[in-house]
Design a protein that fits this description.
single chain; 626 residues; alpha/beta; Alpha-Beta Plaits; Rossmann fold; 4 domains; 9-stranded mixed sheet; 6-stranded mixed sheet; 25 helices
Length: 626
């Protein structure tokens, strides 16, 4: 390992992140980024003053390391006090709070980066901290003793993913009156036998209450702090299930199980269900239920885990009412691996019952959409989705196509495999790497129709089919498929994106705007960056230019500064606003991203009539594109 530039060491890890970052960004992106940079600069200065080193600053997180636990905790306390003072001068909705975790642990060092269990535990501690608070591990606490004028509250032992033993957690009490206090920590005395007997008696008398009530409470979410208004129907986010082993195959199972439950719930018009793309942003992160509910604007959160041993799986699932802080149910299922597909429907129905959604006999059947009984076929399609879900290129799409073909060979009646293969052919066209775009689109339609024939009630199949129809300019069929998807699953974000995209293409922008806005509410993290692009385009076409520019900027914020389509859209919009200098700046960004960009070639690829193409070409020439 040393020869490869790695070394192990014992160090103190400091991890901090922003509370409600998504809400702040949604409210005012520029102000949030500016404030975050200001706070980070201040934190970095304090870290340096306390002999620490900033290791990484990713997203809203800051990680640092210290050689001394005392220095790290002193720094954390000073940071929280300084942030509190700064916030006192700001309106409540613009205050930026941080959670901080501190751990003394073993890490792997590679150059300037650090990895390992010590880092993972620090991140978990950060997630357990209150807004504006600090949590430390037992190993860090043991080094502090009476060295700082602080108090401590023992929060118990907490399990951490991939860490064998539970971690002792302590909350730092910073108030002057708390100095020297140690709350919640039990001490051994000579009366250990009496204590043990008393404990048994107490457990007997209060066990039911403690187990069924206290253990079911989590920190309550606030309706006032929610990033979006609560819908007028039961609203729910399904988090990705936690993988309790290191097997890659089990990652697919975890994601597939959660997605299957989401798809089942989305089919009910009596629920409001957050799309996979948004709830899965919490994958692998220490996250509080309260934060999820407030970030996504939902009342209920479903979480769980999967542990696989040979051909058996143990699955836990718990549904939490974030407003009350209570579990509505907590279940454990020990099943054969082959039964996991049936278990999706069972958990889905359990959720429906828990939130008291009444179903008629006919509606109950919607949770049994045709899938596959072949586990290998199921896993291959999940792997294909994984390939397509990351940064796409020709090689990754072709690997996904191969996996779908293998799944179809295993189960020729598996509709989902045909739909996923259909989207892969469409992706080749969108990426501009198809040898014959027309043939690829026709093949996408053929596969999409096969999926619909196999499973008429599958909203995914109908939504996917809308896109190749749109590119082939069969707009009536495209709209029909998108509307069918929505009618089958009123909570299906992809269906609203498909409908909005087609309406934009045919120039029905006033109708497109609510469809795209609905897509973004169902998935606050857009299911595709072009949801924002299509919405920005519609704003422009109805004359709402400022809204258009703001939406394109949000698209760049999410997709990154090299999103060529967003810069093209902004260039066109600035020309329409008469702001040609800014339009030319966007044109320069297009050429920076793609020095070989050809306006003529690009215009040919977009599915508009010639009049609209001429208008776009004329505007983009004013932006300096050729």
């Amino acid at each position: 390992m040393a020869d490869e530039g790695f070394k192990r060491k014992l160090t103190t890890i400091f991890s901090a992140d922003v509370v409600g970052y998504s809400r702040l960004m949604e409210d005012n992106e520029e102000a949030t980024i500016q404030a975050l940079n200001t706070y980070r600069n201040s934190m970095s200065t304090l870290i340096e003053q306390h002999s620490g080193r900033v290791v990484d600053m990713t997203g809203d997180n800051l990680m640092a390391e210290f050689s001394s636990v005392v220095d790290a905790v002193k720094c954390a306390v000073e940071i929280q006090k300084e942030i509190s003072e700064r916030n006192s001068d700001l309106p409540e909705n613009r205050r930026m709070l941080f959670r901080i975790g501190v751990n003394l642990g073993d890490i792997i060092e590679e150059g300037d980066r650090i990895y390992g269990d010590g880092v993972n535990i620090a991140a978990r501690l950060e997630g357990l901290a209150e807004d504006g608070g600090i949590c430390i591990s037992g190993t860090a606490y043991d080094q502090l003793k009476n060295k700082l004028e602080l108090g401590y509250e023992f929060l118990g032992e907490h399990s951490v993913k991939n860490i064998a033993s539970p971690v002792r957690v302590y909350k730092i009490l910073m108030e002057p009156e708390a100095i020297g206090k140690i709350i919640g920590e039990t001490r051994k005395t000579k009366r250990w036998m009496a204590v043990a007997v008393a404990a048994v008696i107490l457990i007997g008398l209060a066990g039911w209450y403690l187990y069924f009530e206290q253990s079911k409470r989590v920190e309550r979410a606030s309706v006032e702090k929610m990033a979006y208004p609560l819908p007028d129907k039961p609203s729910i986010a399904v988090l990705p299930f936690t993988n309790l082993s290191s097997e890659k195959e089990q990652e697919y199972l975890c994601d597939g199980l959660a997605e299957g439950i989401i798809d089942g719930l989305a089919k009910s018009d009596r629920l409001f269900v957050i799309a996979r793309n948004s709830s899965f942003t919490y994958k692998g992160k220490p996250t509080k239920i309260k934060q999820v509910a407030e970030d996504l604007g939902v009342r209920y959160v479903l979480e769980g885990s999967i542990q696989k041993a040979d051909d058996r799986v143990r699955i836990t699932a718990q549904l939490i009412d974030a407003l009350s802080g209570h579990h509505l149910f907590s279940e454990r299922y020990d099943r054969q691996l082959k039964d996991i597909l049936t278990l999706q429907d069972e958990i889905t129905m359990k959720v429906m019952t828990a939130v008291q959604v009444k179903l008629t006999v006919g509606e109950g059947a919607i949770f049994s959409a045709k899938g596959t009984k072949n586990l290998d076929a199921y896993l291959k399609v999940l792997q294909a989705r994984e390939y397509k879900g990351r940064t796409m290129n020709k090689e990754r799409v072709e690997k996904a196509m191969q996996l779908c073909e293998e799944a179809i060979a295993l189960d020729p009646e598996y509709a989902y495999a045909y739909s996923t293969l259909s989207t892969a052919y469409f992706d080749l066209v969108v990426l501009g790497v198809s040898d014959s775009p027309i043939e690829s689109l026709r093949r996408a339609v053929e596969l999409g129709k096969k999926a619909v024939d196999l499973d008429e009630s599958n909203p995914y199949a109908h939504a996917c089919l809308a896109f190749p129809y749109m590119y082939l300019k069969k707009f009536d069929k495209a709209i029909s498929e998108a509307e069918k998807s929505i009618s089958l699953a009123p909570n299906y974000a992809l269906g609203y994106f498909a409908l909005g995209a087609v309406l934009v293409t045919v120039g029905r922008h006033k109708e497109a705007i609510p469809a795209l806005q609905k897509c973004l509410r169902l998935s606050p993290v857009p299911i595709h960056s072009r949801v924002l692009g299509a919405l920005a385009m519609s704003y422009r076409e109805v004359g709402q230019y400022e809204e258009s520019i703001a939406t394109y900027k949000k698209e760049l914020q999410i997709a990154g500064p090299d999103h060529l389509m967003a810069h093209l859209g902004m260039a066109f919009t600035y020309v329409m606003m008469g702001r040609e200098n800014e339009a030319r700046s966007e044109g320069e960004e297009v050429m920076r991203i793609d020095p070989e960009f050809s306006l003529e070639r690009w215009i040919k690829s977009i599915p508009y009539d010639q009049s609209k193409k001429n208008q776009i070409a004329s505007a983009l020439r004013k932006a300096g594109l050729k």
